[in-house]
Structure formats: C-alpha cells, structure tokens
Amino acid sequence: MEKKKFHMKANSDINENKVNLILDLRKNGINDPEILRVIEEIDRSYFVDSHLYDKSNLNTALPIDCGQTISQPLIVALMTQHLEVKNNMRVLEVGTGSGYQTLVLSKIAKFVYTIERYKTLHQKAKELLKIIKAKNIFFRHGDGGLGWIEQAPFDRIIVTACAFEIPNYLIDQLNEDGIMIVPVGEIHEEQVLKKVKKYKGKVFVENLEKVRFVPLIEGIEKK
Asked: Which of 25, 94, 100, 142 could bridge to 47 as Cys pair (CB 3.0-4.6 Å)?
C-alpha cells in the first residue's frame, strides 16, 4: 500500500524520469528494442528500499541489503545486449542480488537459473519475483562461481560480480556457441567487462569496457 501511495503522489516525476532513462540508454548505445521495451516496462522501485523509490528510475546504482548494489540500468542493459539472448535460450545468472537483472532476463529468455550466495538476498528476490508472477525463473542459494552443474550446459551466462579471472567452472558449463558476460579485474583497481564466446571447443575473449562491480566471493552466507 505504501508503494501505491508513493506512485500516486509522484507519478508525473516517475514518468519523466523513466522517459529520461530510456533516452539516456539510447544515447549510450542501447539499440535493442526488446531490451528498451523491457526496461521501460519494469518498475525498478520494487527492487529498492522505500526511501530510494524516488531514485529508482535514475540511471544510477543503488544500495541493497548485505552491502551489495542494484546495478545502474545502463549496465544492466549493456550486459544484456552483449549477451545476445534469444527467446529459446537458457540463461545462468551468477549473483541474483535484488532480482532486477533476473527479471529483465526472464522477459527475453526461455528460462533463467539464478544463484545468490547471500541467503537474505536469495529469499527476498525469490519472494518478490513470485509476487510479480515471473514463472520461468529458478533460484538457488549457493556459490555462483561453481555454476549450476545439474542444469548445465547453458546458452548464456551472466556474472554480476567481479571475478579475479574468468571462471573456468562457468566456461565448462557453457553450451557450444555459448556466450558469457563477466567483469574481471582487481576489486580496487581496473575492472573490464569481458565477452567470452565458446566456438568449436575454443574460447574467445573480447574486452568490452571498464566497469565497477562488487567482488565475486567464494562460498555462501546463511544470512
């Protein structure tokens, strides 16, 4: 109810911010009409705390539980665009976080398998996306760096935390002709978003752009 009251009160501001957001995405190279449509359609305010509602349609990263962040919409859109997802594909997401990127992927892919090491984030995203009635998402509380071997191979893999190096466990779980998008680098130094392609048993890596992500940490948290 609180969220509905907010939307009624600030509806014109929200609409203006959403329009500006879509224009900003276009200006920064997001040209996939399906991705633009999905981001315009999704209400990002559901994925942040109430005191951040008025910032939910701004092109900026925002804090969430467990010291993590919800990525800025531009990064979500760029990673999704580079992933080249089709509607017949199975996607593995490493790092559920708030569930925002998860929902974006679910509206483009056939199935999304998402892993989160923090139990709090895992449960919160799972409950929220159930309320939103996203039915093609499968959740796991686990170590994302190990992937989801029981469901492998995947057509696409997206990693939403920075790895020290490209995770071999995840490459092994990529389908032939598969693509993985992963930020790689030192946590307090330069990080580069990389596009990893698997073709005829070989792996090809393309550097995309500089980014800033929280670290990809081994193991799981029970809170």
From this structure: 100
